[in-house]
Amino acid sequence: LDACGVCEGAGTTCGTSILLRLGANLTAVGGDYSETRSNYTASLLVSLAAALGVSVERLDVLDLNPVAAPAGSRRLLATSGAVDVTVVLAPDGSSSSQDSQGLVQSSLTSSSNLTVLSVQQEACGICGNGICEAGERCDSGGTGCCAQDCSLALSACPSAAGSTIPCSGSGVCLPSSGVCACYSGYLGAACDFPYFAQVTAAVQSNTSAPPIPGSATPPLRRGASVDGWLLSLPPIAGSGLSAKQLEVLSQSGFDFLRLPVGPASLYNKSTGDLLQARLADLNAAMDWVLASGLDILLDLHFVVDADKMLVLSNPVAFDTYCRFAGQLAKHLTDTRSTTRVALELFNEPRASSNASAPSWPELQRVLYTKVRTAAGPGLLLLLTGDDYSSGAGLSRLQPVDDGTPVAYGFHFYGPSPFTHQGATWGWYLLPYFFSVPYPANRTRMDAVAPAMLAAAPNDEIRAAVKGQLDYLASVPTNAAALRLWMTNVIQWAAAHPGRRVLLGEFGVYKLKSAAADRAQWLQDVRRIAESLDWGWCVWEAHKGFGLFEGDTINSTTLRALIDAPAPKPTPAPLISPTPPPQPCALKLGWEELVARRVGGHKVHSGGLGEQTTLDFGVWLCIDPALAECVAPFASAAVELACFRFHERLFLFEWIGWNSALMLV
């Protein structure tokens, strides 16, 4: 095959899609720090077109990233005058695929104002030229299907035992691949398992629904991620966990490991096929973990942001990724027990800079469908929302309703000035935070703020840090606040009962945080997850956020995650279909509140500020506490009972004691 995918071809029939990373002198290309992204992109495209000798219409910018943005700056571009861009040069129908890269290199390297940092190319077929080229086969899973150029070889679809009807009459046969597309409610390679019908019958007869064949899956209740080990294959010796560390995790009560795996080293970017040598490395790592008794959540986790954004922005790259993920899922199903292994399809997706690209929920639905078709109904697949797998992103997802095992994950790291204090990646202010406490209130923040403000390198950073510290001082940060910040996930789970939710990442960077505060935060987040029947996975086992000190887990950290005493139940939002028991079950309307106030109780009230949600915006605390709250728990009479107001039900709901919430 030539570069165009043509047998015995000369490589001249297709165009070439070229991905560039450029260092651009902003002055030379007409750039200016004050221009907007769109204006800068437009001026850059004009300069690139002139250098390449092509029309602007053939160029498109997929990604644009500063190299070294000044600390605290909201400006688009870097002071160094360097910027990374990912550009697509569309085919013109005449250029030789082999010559395209040389054309770009020679044209741009000779330019005095543009520097080529990297070049990638992909063949791009031309539909209608009578030649079947790469990506044009209609059964390849790509978007470039060209039936007039590529005739299809038809394949027979499977049937149920004793039947000759393709797909058992419960699905559509896709003869290009021989795969059945089952109707809703039917599963199996031959669509011969009427799962939804059996579920309906079970509900009507008040019996248990039948299990999906092979649907027993890992519990995924208590887990830890292993950062760095498999992000590049083959793994670096000594970068994973030792046999002793695996034993400690298993014996301490953890039941699974989340293994972030770098997709870039696992598959061929042109075909989507698994690289067998690297797959062997992954198999060895999985067997090492499974032998310890721990289950596995395999997390497809891009290391380089440009690789991630290419998949999310470029249809060809996305289709190739779908093929890879499907092959990997089928490999897991064929070679490992689906009771021990699960697959997370994409770590921390975010919106593409390509305005024409589909949204992440749309992309994930396509990705899921292709992976499920390849893997069959038994493998547990984990889906996640955009905005870096945030709770808000999860709340925008519509769950899958095909009867197969699916879990829904989100990540939680709030508030970041505490969880990421001292970090040198991500948000530009993080390196300037240290000794930030948890729980946080005015007294604790006032004690640490002067040192942080004095250490700030300039007035701009100092003002930004002060704003964050003032916020943490004015809005108490404690377990109740953390739960409020998860309201969007709580409400999503309540609206979709029966869905498995996994708190897939939570943790605190150890460099600048106090060990006791870190343990308290981990305990509070873990208890919230368990009170809502969510599984959880701490980030991470043995690096900068890690649990281990040598071959042992810090005892305080371990108690926070596993051995801490059972918490008092935390009240769920009123919209929850099955709220947990509440320590103070009292709910007050406006009229009742007025009567209590007249009866001698002092009422403190205020707004929830940035913790306001769709349903809750106002709080109040009653002094002294009401008898209905005090008596069952022998609370001191001077204690204040605090409530929040449900905007739609017009009721005040108990949320805790003021000594913990510190609202007054």
Number of helices: 20
Give the neighbour order of strands across the main sheet.
Answer: 7-8-9-10-11-12-13-14
First-last Cα distance: 74 Å
Beta-strand content bin:
15-25%
Shape: globular
Q: Low-confidence segments, ≥5 residues, pLDDT <50?
A: 26-35, 67-81, 202-215, 564-583, 631-637
Structural class: alpha/beta
Gyration radius, to the nearest Å? Answer: 28 Å
Mean pLDDT: 79
What descriptors fit this protein?
single chain; globular; five-stranded antiparallel beta sheet; eight-stranded parallel beta barrel; 20 helices; 664 residues; alpha/beta
Please provide a written account of the structure:
With 664 residues, this protein is of the alpha/beta class. Helices cover 32% and strands 18% of the residues. The protein contains 20 helices and 21 strands. The chain has an eight-stranded parallel barrel. A five-stranded antiparallel β-sheet has the order 17-21-20-19-18. Helix 16 packs parallel to helix 17. Residues 26-35, 67-81, 202-215, 564-583 and 631-637 have low confidence and may be disordered.
